Batch of 3 targets.
Target 1
Amino acid sequence: MRRTLSLGLAPLFALAACSDDGGSTPTIDAPMVENPGFVLPTAVTKANQETGGAWMEIGDANWSCLNTPSADQPSTQAIALSGEVRDFQNNTGVGAATVTAFPGIMLSGNSGMATSDNVAATRGDFSMTLAQLPAGTTRFGFKLEATGSLKTYLLNQYFDPAAATQTRNISIVSESTANALPALVGINRDPAKGVLAGAMRDCDGNEVSNAVATVSSTQGSVTHLTGARSYYFSEDTGLPARNSSEPVISPNGLFVVLELPPQTAPAFIQVWGFPTAADLAMGAAGLKLLAELASPVEGNAVITGSIEPKRM
């Protein structure tokens, strides 16, 4: 089954090898590529840590938990949550932001609300009560809205159900950043389209490099959403780069998929890569699905998530 799936990816990579740099105009005789940012990695996945503002590779990524049963425990109580709403780009506190928690990926749900402080000393600080999750759901999502910012969602957030008081900071994307980041890779932002983004981490919680990401309409296999374009963030600037500069995920683990048509049915954020040298030696047939997160796509909004190894 795994080999059949992997072989099915080979034509996708054959096309990607003929793609442009993700920001320039393709030549007339070049084939139209489903996602020019989804190419075959040339190395095994690596684990990375940030030290003193610089990223350092610490060895092969740990995939020992991949495809094992989830360690999530069921929700058992309400949680008192506090934290800070921060600007994604400059990390400063964002005041008067509305924070709404919801169960799973139910974007319209409400498991608690708060408004962040808007005074200088505590700007961005918030506190709220997270309602106990319904049976069968172990992860929260958050919706953030503020003047001058794009509606931003954060998915796949796990809280220890045994701890009644917890903290977590949440980032929101400003409208200026939302307009500027696509320009860095040579495209103009279409407000009618959606954006999905994340940071890939391994079983130890370290950021993963040498993998590729996409958004698929099918679970467990690659069927790129129409128009999907994957880009990866430079480890030096912390900004998205053209595919010619960053063809795969860099040591900071960050990726973004742009130009997605809105849909209420779940799409699937996927990360693929080679866990071992033996997998790499097999080429496309050895590529493994490392992470998969279901998510809707909403126009004029950014949906982010904690991207973790795929569990059963």
Target 2
Amino acid sequence: MIHQTSDHAPLPDPCFYSDSHVPQLARVAAAVKEHGALAGVELAHAGASGPAASHREHPLSPTAKFPHYYYNPITARTIDKQDIAQFRRWYRDAAVRAKSAGFDIVYVYCAHNLSLLQDFLDVKTNKRTDEYGGVFENRVRLLRETLSDVKDAVGDTCAVAVRFAVEDRRRASNITALEDGRRVVEALSDVPDLWDVNVSDWPWDSGSSRFFEEGQQEPFIDFVKKVTNKPVVGVGRFTSPDAMVSQIKRGVLDLIGAARPSIADPFLPNKINEGRHDDIRECIGCNACTAEVMTYVRIRCTQNPSAGEEHTLGWHPENVPPADDPSKTILVVGGGPAGLEAGHTLAKRGYQVSIADGGSEWGGRLVRERKMPRLSAWGRVVDYRVGQLQTMPNANMYLNSVLTADDVIGFEADHVIVATGAKWRKDGIGRNHDEPIPGADLPHVYGPEEILDGNLPRGEVVVYDEDYFYMATVVAERLARSGCKVTYITTASDPAPWTINTLELVHVINAMNEMGIEIVVGTSVTSISSGNITTSRILTGAESNRKVDAVVLVTGQISDDVLYHELIAKREAGEIASVERIGDCLGPGQIAQATKDGRKAGIEFCSTGR
């Protein structure tokens, strides 16, 4: 952030508008360079996208308008000539500070509909009639001037890059790869030292695997190298080395941007270089990482449970503490995400590990979920851990092994971890219902597990969502694909509201609309009868009836913890020494929570006591 008027509160943006900011960011640059890498920093002004609420400033815009993304009751003011001169000075000063902090690459940011510079390029946000508005050359003027200013400020010992969105996919715009997006690159082709290109805005640039394939930005960015001699870096939800290499060999990009894949596996480049492709924790594209940014907590990752815990817990994504007594045996009951992560971590530490699961496939909840629409990539959570465990001589794996409490006692393990998961409720108890929904026990009422098993109803089906994440919309899509006429009803004000944090909400809505799924929000299902449901509006209490052939209740899960409690009774009777539960068996949640629980159990186990 180059000035207080770019404030994104409550997001904690790093700042470069004061000399007092230099020391802390110098530590960041030094830490990056310590490992032989170049340190780069994006210098940005959010324009009308930043409400500047923390500093109580007026947001800036080429033309007065409301901020793009916030409900703040404030209008961004029109930037005048004096403001433009100040803006250019803010950029120059921030660039000098970045260089003095030790950064090797300074970015001018013009992307994601989060940039004043991008607002000047767009005819929808730039209605000016002076030399900074109107025709293309006028609208690109401030970006050209800013790049020139920054290059002059840092000299030839610091590279200047531009991060530029060549296409706005959020709305109809003149910024497209066929129109002004291309013209900007052509007009400024050799001005920056590096082009970092993408699409806008974030739900399209960092779209999830549910809605975007690898390399999905190629059709929008493949022209850039044809019109510039400068290096080009880009992104595109890359996860596999083959896809990355393909873009480079075919001349689409010179460098691969791999933020999310590097969160999943920080040692991704090393493993590619060493040919250790099977050891890569490949990103599943679930966007658990973006969800934590959106909710203002430290980052987390489904595939890499150490992400965000390196400082707080001292966890390392590759290294684990050695076993204090490698002869100790641990039995893990349950081969889902939590159990597999616990078993992998413990085996890596050197303990003797056995994992037993009652099913015919590894994966727990993911055995079925990965087969549902758009969720196949999530199966990598299982594939990576099973692949690693199968190479470990101290790890034994048993499928089709339903264990009773007596079976567990007979195993004589030094420690038992119960990771038996959770089951979806069928009674309708959830966020809005503390008691079962009347009629939930009728034969035409389903839970998600029947749908996951392929037991599909026919006709007109209501999917009722109080879970608020992905399951209800996935079930609705599965039923629509099978020929059902589907109505999705939720108590929330948006369908699957948590998905705004995973950058999926707009795509969820578009997908359901395309499949003809009726969306009803702010509504509760209050009772179910044969061929009918009664609903109530959340805000008014107004009731109505709807004819249905079937109802699917997606309202919550309940831990499958019977075995755990039986073992606790055995422990109290002195028949077993050490037992714990993890993952959904401890408390149903996201898969990222399950793998974190598994990592925690694996790291913290000590044979002399927990």
Target 3
Amino acid sequence: MRVAYVLPSIHIPSGWRSFCSGLINALSHYVDPIIFVAASDMEVATSLFPHQRVFSLPLTQRALLTDLHAWPALSAFLFEIIKRRFRRCGQGHGHGHGQGHNHGRDHDNIFDYTHGYGEIDLVHSLEAYPTGLIGFLLARELRKPHVISAIGTYAVLWANYRIHKFIYGQILKRARAIFPISQGTAALIKKHFGQYLHGVPIQTILCGNDYVRSISREAALNREFPEIPTILSVGVIIPRKGYHISLAAFAKVKEQLPQARYWIVGSIDDVNYFKQLQHFIAAHRLKDVEFLGEVSEEKLRQCYEQASLFLLTPQQIGLYFEGFGLVYLEAGAYGLPVIGTKTGGVPDAVKDGVTGLLFEPGDVEGLSRGLLLLLTNRDLARKFGQANRDWAETLTWERSARQYYEAYLDLIKI
């Protein structure tokens, strides 16, 4: 089976990049992937997928019809479709792609990538919109089924934009299947776009991870907890990650456990929000909070190894939300218990009362009690941490790939 994958932006480390690389590399054991990325992502894509065929499109995740800066590249893509249709009409038969007239042109026409490879069976957009728009156009021109993975915010954000809601709604309506990465994401899609989804199969396939490959099971299950109670958060500094909530909870922890410390790893993507956090720290005379910024892989490993527990308190802000929460599984790979919030896809990543604890997004009191419990009860922390390691070993990319492959088979009836 040959599947065309249309990828969102992957030029910087991100959830998109982790999702695309992990899933496609696992799926390559089941299907023959043909990968399409924005031209600006080609260098990264060829390094991420050294054994796969990678082709460039003018753009993918930037393909917003209302963005004037995107129109030159988007027009180039649409022009290729028009040329192809004229050529097909002139030939008077079949699909017309991959014919000998284009032989030797190094695939400068994006629809001639099949030359020498055979036909595509399915087009899979690895983000809902606008990447899904490009996948939809590609699938329609190739006359093949189109399926969509819904990663999180970009699967529902467009409900606030009339033009995009209509366009995205038409894409959803015509999809052969939609694959949200969490039950939380699925629920929000149904809530905001239900009128377009009648008869469209929606199958939640949870994210996978490969963190467990780099940390031995023995080391994770027998980890030593530090003498200094240490809380670790990993995630970019933006309001949606909820650091204003986690800092408020930490302030209450310090009242009863003054030796506790809090490490925050992540780039400062919202300077104003970071200033608000700094103001809170100063106003409450809160000590032992350290913003570490972006760190190396080795430094990140050390942070996980020296932490007592992992904390991240995502918030839904408008239609911005946490689609899943791979970072909770990364913590699980190290045998750490986790604390999170009941929002978006987090309840799919954290098994409440098993791998960690979940609280309502604004429940500062509950979060502080949970932190104190796991910081002072090492037996419970170890129990949750070991269960989180087991959960991380269960949610692998291989598991996700098998589920996608079985769904593909159902769709194209091979």
